[in-house]
Automatic annotation (TrEMBL):
Family: Belongs to the TrpF family.
GO biological process, any: L-tryptophan biosynthetic process
Domain of life: Bacteria
Top EC class, one word: isomerase
Domain N-(5'phosphoribosyl) anthranilate isomerase (PRAI): 3-197
Protein name: N-(5'-phosphoribosyl)anthranilate isomerase
Catalytic activity as recorded in UniProt: N-(5-phospho-beta-D-ribosyl)anthranilate = 1-(2-carboxyphenylamino)-1-deoxy-D-ribulose 5-phosphate
Keywords recorded for this protein, A-Z: Amino-acid biosynthesis, Aromatic amino acid biosynthesis, Isomerase, Tryptophan biosynthesis
Alphabetical list of InterPro entries matching this protein: Aldolase_TIM, PRAI_dom, RibuloseP-bd_barrel, TrpF_fam
Gene Ontology terms, MF aspect: phosphoribosylanthranilate isomerase activity
EC number: 5.3.1.24
Species this chain originates from: Cytobacillus firmus
């Protein structure tokens, strides 16, 4: 099971996450308590292994600004977490993760409209788009197979429930931010437990 740790703001957290098996790191450029500026993100990204996905998170941003931030920071995947259209999402040369808020089965009807590489399913919108620590009803996904899309499960995941989420949704990747924090800061021990528990589910299923 692949794991993305989102809301990275310092090099020690980034390296610790990678050492413990993270496959992707998220850098938030939208309004958020985890927002980072492109130059600071670039300093971190330059220290990271090439194979790790460096994901930039944006909400209703212009294409020109996204491309400028990508150039400065060195991100290699774009996550669009706002009201971006399918046409906008397909206009980039970078791989794109389109985030969709899921509150009911009807919200999944828009999946087929997007042709991007990844679809991230998150909980309903709170104060911010994502990072609100609330999960949605994973059983919804049993009736709506993702077919060929690479689905990323997000929203309310933490070390204690990530295994349950994986078994329920069978995602390509799981994504966590607030679920591995203590008092608003990334907690290395929670990150390790989250990754260990996520990877363990896949190992158990393979037996």
């Amino acid at each position: 099971m692949k794991v993305k740790i989102c809301g990275i703001r310092d090099i020690s957290t980034a390296l610790s996450a990678i050492e413990n098996g993270a496959d992707a790191l998220g850098f938030v450029f939208a309004e958020s308590k985890r927002k980072i500026n492109p130059e600071a993100a670039g300093e971190i990204i330059r220290e990271l292994p090439r194979e790790v996905l460096k994901v930039g998170v944006f909400v209703n941003e212009t294409k020109a600004t996204i491309e400028e931030i990508a150039s400065v920071s060195g991100i290699n995947v774009i996550q669009l977490h706002g009201d971006e259209t399918p046409e906008f999402c397909s206009s980039f040369s970078f791989p794109v993760i389109k985030a969709l808020s899921v509150g009911s089965p009807d919200d999944l009807s828009q999946l087929d409209e997007y042709s991007c590489e990844y679809i991230l399913l998150d909980s309903p919108k709170g104060k911010y788009r994502g990072g609100n620590g609330i999960s949605f009803d994973w059983s919804i996904l049993n009736k709506n197979p993702m077919q060929d899309k690479k689905m990323i499960l997000a929203g309310g995941l933490h070390p204690e429930n990530v295994g349950e989420g994986i078994k329920a949704a069978n995602p390509y990747m799981v994504d966590v931010s607030s679920g591995v924090e203590t008092e608003g800061k990334k907690d290395p021990e929670k990150i390790k437990r989250f990754i260990d528990n996520a990877k363990r589910v896949e190992r158990e299923e393979v037996k």
